[in-house]
From TrEMBL:
Residues annotated as domain PBP: 22-278
Homology family: Belongs to the PstS family.
Pfam families: PBP_like_2
Protein name: Phosphate-binding protein
GO molecular function: phosphate ion binding
Source organism: Alteromonas halophila
Keyword Transport (UniProt): yes
Lineage: Bacteria, Pseudomonadati, Pseudomonadota, Gammaproteobacteria, Alteromonadales
Subcellular location, record wording: Periplasm; Secreted
Keywords: Periplasm, Phosphate transport, Secreted, Signal, Transport
Length: 306
């Protein structure tokens, strides 16, 4: 872990973004719904610096980013999960080298309940037993009633109404790995087209629970602490996400086509430098996500410059 002095030193080394001459053109972004607002914030701020730049942002899910990059119909591929080996193989087959993957923000997959819900938290086995049919994470009985989680109020709505993302979503795929130990979802999980829809559904139903990107949290929901046991629950905070102690912490990525040994075109290079600058990371905070640690951010800038 970084000492306070080392952290302050790294923070001081993260550069401000400085406007460069000759930046114009169009950036097309195809990918993550989770990162839709973040891409909008970045693009709006960047356009204030460079009015001649245009953006087209299509937020149709992380799984749509790799094919768009392979076919050359996207400049950038925002993704809320890592690339699959098959996606990397497809890219290499077309271009002869792998894509460049940059970690540009941090997020967490939250388990949301309605804000008045008294549940103090859940164990990881309880999460699996609630959302999956397979219970590969070691859970026993399937959890379908609030009483099974310790809510004794007999009037509390049961069974638990479940909400989650659809299958093209990176959040869906990552939750399947992290929370279900690569198991199968229950048919009872109501799939939604975006994290905002999940949060709205949970907020408007006393007996609902759903998983979604934490950046879409509203005042109507509460993110549950999670842990191996009820005695070791970890709350979802900036510190627990950035040090990755919260169980469902994750990076958010921008994937690009960069030929090894060759510089990126000016527009793409400057936009990514902006994203990886102090100003770019301020937009991450603005959208409710978490800036990457300073040491990680500096490594991403070196990847970009190399």
């Amino acid at each position: 872990m970084l000492t306070a002095t080392a952290s302050q030193l790294l923070a001081a080394e993260v550069p401000d973004y400085k406007r460069q001459p000759g930046v114009a053109g169009k950036i097309t972004s195809v990918g993550s719904d989770t990162m839709a607002n973040l891409m909008t914030f970045w693009s709006q701020e960047f356009k204030q610096l460079y009015p001649q730049v245009k953006f087209q942002i299509q937020a149709s899910g992380s799984s749509t980013a790799p094919p768009a990059l392979v076919e050359g119909t996207a400049t950038l591929g925002p993704m809320s999960r890592e690339l699959k080996p098959s996606e990397i193989r497809d890219f290499v087959k077309k271009h002869g080298y792998p894509p460049l993957v940059l970690r540009v923000a941090m997020d967490a997959i939250a388990i949301f309940v309605e804000r008045q819900n008294p549940l103090p938290g859940m164990t990881l086995q309880e999460v699996d037993a609630t959302f999956s049919t397979t219970r590969y994470c070691g859970g026993g009985e399937p959890v379908t009633q609030w009483q099974q989680l310790g809510i004794a109020d007999p009037d509390y709505p049961s069974p638990i109404r479940l909400f989650g993302r659809n299958s093209v979503s990176g959040t869906y795929g990552l939750f399947k790995i992290m929370a279900l130990c690569e198991g199968d979802f229950r048919n009872a999980v109501n799939e939604q087209p975006g994290s905002a829809s999940v949060v709205l559904s949970v907020a408007s139903s006393k007996g609902a629970m759903g998983y979604a990107a934490y950046g879409y949290k509203t005042a109507g929901v509460r993110a549950l602490p999670l842990g191996e046991t009820r005695d070791t629950l970890i709350p979802l905070t900036m510190d627990t996400v950035r040090d990755e102690s919260y169980p469902f912490s994750r990076f958010l990525y921008l994937v690009i086509n960069k030929k090894p040994g060759e510089p990126l075109p000016t527009l793409e290079r400057e936009f990514l430098r902006f994203v990886l600058s102090k100003q770019g990371q301020q937009q991450v905070r603005r959208d409710g996500y978490f800036p990457v640690r300073e040491d990680v951010l500096l490594r991403q800038r070196r990847l970009l410059d190399n």
